[in-house]
Design a protein that fits this description.
Layout (H helix, E strand, L loop, with lengths): L2 H4 L23 E2 L1 H5 L4 H22 L3 H9 L22 H13 L2 H4 L9 H4 L5 H11 L1 H15 L4 E5 L3 E3 L4 E3 L2 E4 L1 E2 L2 E2 L8 E2 L6 H20 L2 H10 L4 H8 L3 H10 L2 H12 L7 H8 L6 H10 L7 H16 L3 E10 L4 E9 L4 H9 L4 E7 L7 H8 L9 E6 L5 H13 L4 E5 L1 H11 L9 H10 L2
Parallel strand pairs: 11-12, 12-13
Antiparallel strand pairs: 1-8, 2-5, 3-4, 6-7, 9-10, 10-11
Length: 477
């Protein structure tokens, strides 16, 4: 049973910020460390700092030949059942690595020249050249290291979606970067009859890690070997020129072999290959799984934007239905703007609780409108105010949203309402606010939501949102 059904959340995967895992078995997706490094949120930065600290600690112990300490740290890792991510068949059956397997991993790392010579500097790079370390193991190790931030994220999601939690739940080992050791404690976590749950943001999971040994071999090692052969005018090259007109991959594999040890051998000869692959993945990263892919992975219904809009339109205008309207708008916006906007918070308290904002999102955009705004204007967060009014919003509503802005939090927001009778006048008020340096407010009504859905369905430019760009251009004109 999916978590959303177990806790009766009334949502599908597309309207949830986390992976809607099966409460008993595993979902075949993995946490990708590089996905964390590409996010600009404080939460992601904390996770990345923990990963870097743990891996650098292991590397330092290996280089210092402190075998016992390195093995002890590795032995505390386990295959985390509580995330329900991975490849286990049937019921999730994660196990601790244990001293024997930890010793094997240590021996592979300590015996790797790519490690001892400082070629491998990040956790995910070990999957390129060390046999036995693959996407599932990298994901499991990452989960262990960032368990602390994942616990805090889980608690935030439980509060946001109304998921009950149990107190006094053992957390499992959490990495302490100050003491460079594992610590265990107790916390509040959601639990099912199969155990505790640790929720994972869907924006950081992938079917395949960004750094992939097979891809590295095919796109970097093979071309390098082919160039080496051509340059040396080897016997293989002469045979290829006379019979094949080019040196084929089959010829190269027969001569040099394939696999992670081949990756290591030739990367040691030409470290620039690894740097080229790193640079390629930074400018062309694996994108987050889309709604359809996630729905397929968790065996959930796909996201129906039109149905979400119908829920909005069913809500009657007026103060009595304000909460219902806000709920429906959040579901719709969370689906439409994913993966640009993530980690929604409702009724966020500002200025020690003296001010509140209906909804705010973390801006995680790497393409499209929200990425463009992040390059030019402060918008680490995107604020949303929902007004279920029968009449147009006016100056007090402008001032209310503008009062939520700040250079550190962000200065871009959406004012969502039912029907804007005089759209020209409202846009002029928003432009006045921008010209007074009080922030950038984009007004949207029910009709605009239909346009956003249409633009979101456009697979060519799903995150561009021409409507938002057009409104924003007016604000700064």
């Amino acid at each position: 049973m999916l978590m959303s059904r177990y806790f009766k959340l009334g949502r599908v995967q597309g309207t949830l910020d986390f992976v809607d895992v099966d409460t008993e078995s595993d979902v075949p997706v993995f946490i990708d460390p590089m996905a964390l490094s590409l996010l600009s949120t404080d939460w992601a930065h904390e996770c990345q700092a923990l990963i870097d600290d743990f891996f650098s600690t292991i590397l330092e112990l290996i280089n210092a030949k402190n075998n016992a300490s390195a093995i002890a740290l590795l032995a505390s890792l386990n295959e985390p059942n509580e995330t329900h991510l991975g490849m286990s068949q049937g019921r999730s059956q994660g196990t601790a690595i244990g001293p024997d397997f930890a010793k094997q991993i240590f021996q592979k790392m300590a015996g790797s020249k790519a490690v001892t010579r400082g070629l491998i500097t990040h956790l995910e790079e070990s999957a390129l050249m060390i046999p036995g370390i693959d996407r599932d193991r990298i994901s499991d190790v990452t989960t262990n290291i960032i368990r602390g931030p994942l616990i805090l994220y889980t608690q935030a999601m439980c509060q946001y979606y109304g998921i009950p939690t149990n107190s006094g739940v053992p957390t499992g080992p959490c990495w302490n970067p100050r003491r460079h050791t594992w610590e265990q404690t107790f916390s509040e976590l959601p639990c099912t009859s199969y155990g505790s749950l640790l929720l994972v943001p869907k924006i950081i999971v992938r079917r395949k890690l960004s750094l992939d040994a097979g891809e590295y071999y095919t796109k970097y090692i093979i071309p390098y070997l082919r160039q080496e052969e051509q340059t040396a005018a080897s016997s293989l090259s002469r045979i290829a020129n006379s019979k094949q007109k080019r040196i084929t991959r089959k010829f190269l594999e027969n001569k040099y072999g394939a696999g992670k040890l081949v990756n290591e051998e030739h990367t040691l000869r030409n470290p620039e290959l690894l740097q080229q692959y790193r640079d390629f993945r930074k400018i062309d990263p694996r994108v987050p799984l889309n709604h359809a892919e996630l729905a397929e992975c968790v065996r959930s219904d796909n996201t129906d934007y039109d149905a979400l809009l119908r829920e909005v339109l069913k809500v009657k205008t007026g103060r009595a239905s304000a909460k219902a309207y806000e709920d429906c708008i959040e579901k719709l916006l969370s689906a439409v703007f994913y993966p640009s906007l993530t980690h929604p918070k409702r009724e966020s308290k500002l200025h020690d609780g003296r001010k509140r904002v209906d909804i705010d999102y973390a801006n995680a955009a790497t393409t499209g409108f929200f990425y463009w705004t992040s390059l030019h204007y402060p918008c680490a967060k995107i604020f949303v105010e929902c007004k279920n009014y029968e009449s147009d919003p006016s100056n007090p509503e402008m001032d209310q949203l503008a009062g939520r802005f700040s250079p550190s939090r962000g200065q871009v927001g959406l004012l969502v309402c039912r029907k804007i009778a005089n759209k020209h006048l409202l846009l002029k008020r928003c432009r006045d606010t921008a010209r007074d340096s009080r922030g950038y407010i984009v007004p949207l009504d029910d009709d605009d939501m239909l346009k956003l859905i249409s633009q979101r369905k456009n697979l060519e430019t799903p995150m561009r949102f021409d409507l938002l760009q057009e409104r924003f251009n007016y604000l700064i004109s």
